[in-house]
Amino acid sequence: MDSITAIAQSWLTDFFDDETKKEIQHLMKNDPEELKERFYKDLEFGTGGMRGVMGVGTNRINKYTLGKNTQGLSNYLKKSYTDHDLKVVIAYDCRHNSKTLAKTVADVFSANGISVYLFSDLRTTPELSFAVKYLGCHAGIVLTASHNPPEYNGYKVYWADGGQIVPPQDGEIIAEIDSLSFEDIKFDKNEALIHLIDEEVDEAFFDGSLKNGNFNAKGKDDFKIVFTSLHGTSITAIPEVLKRAGYKNVTIIEEQATPNGDFPTVKSPNPEEPEALEMAIKKAEEIGADMVVGTDPDSDRLGIAVRNLEGKIELLNGNQTMVLMTKFLLDQYKEKGFKGNEFIASTIVSTPMMAQLAKAYGVEYKTALTGFKWIGKMIKDFPNSKFIGGGEESFGFMVGDFVRDKDAVTSTLLACEIASNAKAEGSSFYKELINAYVQFGFYKEKLVSLTKKGMSGAEEIKQMLKDFKENPVESVQGSKLLWIEDYNTSTAKNVQTGEEFSLNLPKSNVLIYETEDGTRIAARPSGTEPKVKFYISTNAKLDKAADYKSVNSQLETKIDGILSELNL
Question: For the whole model, what pTM was predicted?
Fold first, then answer.
């Protein structure tokens, strides 16, 4: 505790503002446990950049932690581009303090002689990714905490290709940041270097989204959409893109249309949570809509709900939407003729059905660690290959490579194109998904997330994963364990033969069990939230669409059994 107090006391110098010092003194006197939580470590970059609770302290998001990051990044940019007039672009979402923090970040860049393009108001994360390349910038920053609770904010760093930073850059940038003291931050802004941007970039982004996501689907006049931005940034883009694509029957949930960092109408602004889309689903049932779309605050994730076989609106999971959107894109490419260099991509904890799609269409399938930065890296690492599309189970999808991150704007348009066309041909999004199960195998997944907050929670997560690794299952629902994939050691072991193979991916705290019948169980800590996550994947053969309900029920029963076996 003495070392933590010493760190906190270092924030009481004249460099720090009076409000910050006052709060630290209050914590020292009245709440030593909270002081400990705020100063026991520095915030770190995870799968989605740096994300944390806002407030005073080294373990919090504030002007000093973000200022230090920006100073380190400024130094790194100057070392990386020695003879360039450096340019960065900054966007921010609807969260509390996002606009103020974005201006602070802009000030520090400008104080370091770097030109800044700052969006004049909130914009989506995919537009920021697009803007990096469009404006010819060397880096980009978006202030967002994605779908985290209201007390969070974050800082995501993008490089010149429009993708998030990846190794070795992230480590080199962190080393640069760690070499600094807070007093090294240059806050003395140069307003002449800060340029506000808006409509020109908007128009270019909308054009790119339409070019990549609009396939001139049939039936648009007869297709009804209910859309909710969940108080986030997608209100600035998705309604306009759908309008330009020809969708006239779009009902916006007005109670959730105004950007608001408190997210007052939902427990969590996360489209993965059924509760978040309750208001939109209710409206869809009232007006007879065909599809519901909801997006997270920075508009990189989307949740889709469609009418099931009984005609009721049902929320699909990220694996289901990913599979059908990828299949649709593959069909479009197949119609034009594959060139032989195409690939699709997903992550190691997403549905294995993506691999079956690639095999059936004769394209390459690339897998990555969790986080779209790895998919962006694939596109960068293989410039002669063509990325068709792909995503991950956590409700993210990317259409083509004009954006190098999850893109709920273009993905929403793509989903509407699939559903509208299907309806016009006497089918539906749901029925097309079932047809895909018949063709490629029926894969059903389940995610279990356990929240463990604070320093004690971090230790609990560490112990849970340690136990999961040191006490492997012998069988799952009667199917013997076949493979253990340990990404901490980069090894895959066949437990029945003793064979071992190297995993050609960076080390990561992920462990995956696979049984003889193809059941997969993965465990990993979240890179952006205080959670430990368990991913269950089961599969079965679906001979015909008429058997869907019975086979779906069998897989649900199997998943319930797995959760019981694992005490989850």
Answer: 0.95
